[in-house]
Amino acid sequence: MALELFNTMGRELQEFRPREAGKVGFYGCGPTVYNYAHIGNLRAFVFQDILERSLSYLGYEVNHVMNVTDIGHLAGDVDSGEDKMVATAKERGQSVLEIAKFYTDAFFADIDRLNIRRPGTICRATDHVNEMIELIRRIESNGHTYMSGGNLYFDVATFPAYGDLARLNLEDLKAGARIDVDENKRNPYDFVLWFTKSKFENQALTWDSPWGRGYPGWHIECSAMSMKYLGEQFDIHTGGIDHIAIHHTNEIAQSEGATGKQWVRYWLHNEFLVMDKGKMSKSSGNFLTLQTLMDEGYDPMDYRYFLLGGHYRSQLTFSWESMDSAKNSRKNLVQRVSAILESLGEAAASAADIAPEVPASSPAKPYLDRFRAALEQDLSTPRALSELQGLVRDQGLSAADVLSGIAAMDSVLALRLVDSARAMIAERRAAEAEIAADPRVEALIAERAEAKKAKNFAKADEIRNRLKDEGILLEDGPSGTIWRKA
Ligand code: AMP
Ligand code: ZN
Predict the structure, then answer these.
(1) What pLDDT was estimated at residue 265?
(2) Atom of ligand 1 nearest to the CA of 271
(3) DSSP assignment of 356-387
(4) Which residue in 114, 123, 158, 360 is deepest, having the highest Cβ count within 10 Å?
(5) Whose CA is nearest to atom 19 of ligand 1?
(6) 242, 246, 273, 287, best to mutate for ligand 1 pocket (most atoms within 8 Å of CB)
(7) What is the average pLDDT across 144-149?
(8) Owning domain of residue 241
């Protein structure tokens, strides 16, 4: 089978055909670093990671580029409102760049904790203002711009394909209500490429440009940086569904307005994570971070498992109950993997030591085939997870075959299964060593044996229960009583 992806451009599943056989250029919109990423944002990055890992698994060489927006993102997607970075900087009494650095570091710490592979190229907007200016000049020389009220605007009337991605109806829009009123615009869909007249006083970061000293609009950074690192045409662009109507629509107009060529072949968008109570957003302050989940006793892998349980194009509702259920399922899975490792005497092996190659003759192969088919069907992680669950529970397979299969699947799902199982084994062994070294346990077992001999069963049960509460289970056998860690 071939890989099929749902292309937002056209709204259909399409066979994936990269520009160059075996190679994929992929740009994912990155974070805006004026606050911590919330768990909804992190869904977008886990999705990018699944896409990147699936493509690699399917044999493509992937060039993954992600930006970090450290300037010019206004409080709405539209060209009005307060600059969020500047607002946070003001609040904290720090510089905009200090704020950006702090939250960029926090973002990458979250990414690492979620076992998201870092994109090969990570680029910051502030390092690419020259490229943005160059691109705006090309857009301008193709007649797509006008100056008004001190800002340079993109004139959507000059780009007939404007709105194709979002299926916007320009006529409705002209009549309609969508965007704020900016009297400098000829059309409400027009957007700013370069600001010289900031609506805000004391704009922190400004640059010289052919249009005067100022700063770039938000959308231009993604056009400029993706083209710098991936060329003027590339294969895949991702983001959350909120980016379809404005950000990506404007990115297309700018990029194709500059080059006159199709820019991106496949547009992939992840659905939102929503809260059971209201919308989660950075600007409203109503959001959960990964750290909050960890403070509540969840492992970042529990959250990753929870996300993979939903298809990326389905809305997911966050609740503590669903986190509990993800946590339990993952724990059961890790327990199975630890039993498999122990049965092989491989408790000490690290994930990296286990070959993920599964030969065609392996009895585990049918699971791997279905796993691959799940990925090829628009990255169906729920189906991929259920193949993993089936594999680890199949008693008819040898432990070694199962383990290679797990390693292969986990190169995409990235749930750190083998390492977590090793940690679980090590933890249990440490607890067992502690019990073995505790003379009190042996003394209680002897006391219980005496009680039983004296037919004092109430006391014998009381001792058994006391130890059980400490996680020590007693088992009576022909050669006496032994203990085992619960
Ligand atoms: P931002 O840092 O606001 O630019 O957002 C980073 C990424 O998160 C973008 O791709 C957004 O589309 C995406 N995103 C924002 N909110 C959510 C959400 N609640 N669920 C899933 N993705 C989201
Ligand atoms: Zn972008």
Answers:
(1) 98
(2) 21
(3) ----TT-TTHHHHHHHHHHHHBT--HHHHHHH
(4) 123
(5) 40
(6) 242
(7) 96
(8) 4-270
